[in-house]
Design goal:
By secondary structure, the protein is of the alpha/beta class. It has 19 helices and 11 strands. It has 2 domains: 125 residues, P-loop containing nucleotide triphosphate hydrolases (Rossmann fold, 3-Layer(aba) Sandwich); 189 residues, Winged helix-like DNA-binding domain superfamily/Winged helix DNA-binding domain (Arc Repressor Mutant, subunit A), CATH 1.10.10.
Amino acid sequence: MISRTISGILCKHLGLNKAILLFGARQVGKTTLLENLDCFKNQAVLYLNGDDADVREQLSNTTSTHLKNIFGKNKIVVIDEAQQIPNIGITLKLITDKLKSVQVIATGSSAFELANQANEPLTGRKFEFHLFPLTFGEMAAHHGFLEENRNLEKRMIFGYYPEIVNNPGNEEKLIKLIANSYLYKDLLMLENIKRSSYLEKILKALALQVGSEVSNNEIAQLIGTDNKTVEKYIDLLEKTYVIFKLPALNRNVRNEIKKGKKIFFWDNGIRNSVLGNFSPLNKRTDTGILWENFLISERMKLNFNKQQTVSSFFWRTTQMQEIDYLEEFPDQIHAFEFKWNVKSKVKFSKTFTSAYNVSEIKTITPNNLDEFLL
C-alpha cells in the first residue's frame, strides 16, 4: 500500500464540524485513500457512492431525520462521486448543521460541479483538498529514492496514475484505458458536450504545445472553431484535472509578456496517450518538453500536498528572454530552469534578476531533481 501525503492532513481535519471535500480526477485513488486512512480504524464508517441511483435518490431533497436514519450509528460518512447527487450542497449543509456528531467527507471527480453545488450552501462549513496522481515524493518514500530514480524514464512516459504504477509491464494498455474510458467521462456528460471531436483536437493541440505559450485564437483557427469554444473546453479540462495553466509573470519589465499562458498536463502519461506516443526517450524529439511537464506538474502536486501557499509563473519578454518556472512568495521569488541534458549550460537573464527580488536561482537536471521534488 503506497502512503499518500495528504492522508495525515485529512485526519487532522476530522471532527471539526466541517464538511471535507476531496477533489480529483477519476482513478487517482480517492476511494482507496479514504478506505485506508489510519484514523478510520476502529471507527464506524458508512461508504456511499453517488454513481448509484438509489444513493442519488435518497440523498437529494432530503431531511435531517431521513439522513439520520440512513447513517444509523455511523459517525463518519463518505460520499464518493458526490457531484452526481442533485442538490448535494444543501445535503452537506444539512449534515454539517443538524447532524453534528457525523463527519461527512464528499469526493468529486468533477470539481466544478461539486464546487458549484457546494460553495454557497457550505460557506464557512467546509475544508477543501485535492488529490492527484501519485508523486515522485510518495514513491520515493514507498520504495526509496534510488529505486524511484531508476524508474524516472518510465514515469516521464507513462505517468503516475496508481493503476499504472501498480501494474508494471501493462502501462501502455492501462494508460490508454484511463485516458479514453475514465478521464473524460464527467466532462462529456456535463455542459451537454456532444462534439467530442473538438475535445480530441484541442487536447492534441495542447499536448503538442506543452512548454510553449498557448493562444486560444491559434487553436481555434487550427481546428476550425471559435475562440469561445476553445476557451470553454480548456476551462473544463482544467476543472476536471486534466490540465493546468501556468500564467506569465509581469510586474516590472516593459517588454514582459503581459497575458501569456502555458498549459501543462497533470500527468505525463495522459499527455503521451493523447498523442499516441510511448516511444522511449532516446527515440523522441520532445524529451525536453516531457522533462519540463514532469517537473512542473510534480512540483505543483508537491505544493498542494504540503498546503504550500505559493504563486507559480513562467517569465518571458518579447525579446525571447525566458525562465521556465518561478515561485513567488510574499517577499521573494525562486527561479528555475529545467534541462534534461546535465551538461547543458544555463545563463539566467540579467534583465529578470535585476528587476525582481530573486532569492534562489537553480537549474534542475536528472542529477539534482531530489532538491526540487523532495
